[in-house]
Amino acid sequence: MGAWGLTQIAAVLYGTTSWLAWADYPWPTSLRWSGGVLYAAAIALLWRSHADLGRAWSPRVEVRDGQTLVTTGVYRHIRHPMYAAHLLWSLGQALMLPNVLAGPVALVVMILFCRTRIPREEDLMLEQFGRHYQRYKARTGCLLPRITLWRSSKAEGQH
After folding, report:
1. Cβ atoms < 10 Å from Cβ of 3
2. DSSP codes of every residue in 51-66
C-alpha cells in the first residue's frame, strides 16, 4: 500500500505542479470524464464497504476476537468491495490523468497488491469461518458481483 500511496502523491503533484509534465501523453477528454465517473463510483463503494464492515475492518490481514463474518450490505454481493473500490479508483485515475507516473502506475500497483493480498485474506477467512465462508464464497463474486443468468431447480431447493 506504500507504493500505491506514492502514486497518490504523484497524482497530487500532477494536479498542482508541472513537475511531472515530462511524463504526459495525449489523451481524449471523453476518457478523462469517464475516469472521473469511475473515480466517484469508487469513492462511493469504498465508503459503503467501510460502513457495512464497521468494526470488523482492519488494515492488517487478521480476524479479531469475537468477529463474525459480514455478509450483508455490499458484502452480500462481493467479498472484497474495498479492493474493488481501490481498483476502480485506480482505473478512474488512470483515465483521468494522462501521465505515466500519476495515472496508470496506480492501477498496476493496485493489481499487484490485490494479487498478493486477496489470497491471504481468503485463506484466513476459510481457516476462521470454515464451511460458512465456503458457502459465502460460492454465492458471491470476489471483486464483482456474481451474475447468474439462470438457476437450476436443484440450486433453489426444488426437485
Report:
1. 13
2. HHHGGG--SSS---TT
Q: Is 8 helix (H, G, I), strand (E, B) or coil?
A: helix
Cell reading at 7: 502514486
For residue 141, what are the β-bridge partners?
A: 78
* Residue 57 dihedral angles phi and psi, to the nearest 5°: -70, 140
Residues 6 or more apart in contact with residue 15 via CB below 8 angstroms: 97, 102
Each residue's pLDDT tens digit, 25-54: 999 999 999 999 999 999 999 999 999 999
Instruction: Give CA–CA dist 79/5, Å, rounded.
Output: 23
Tell me the whole-structure pTM to 2 decimals: 0.88
The answer to whether 86 and 22 are in contact (CB under 8 A) is no
Q: Residue 96 contacts by C-beta under 8 Å, 6 or more apart in sequence?
A: 32, 35, 36, 39, 103
Domains and CATH numbers, the chain: 2-15+28-57+67-139 (1.20.120.1630)
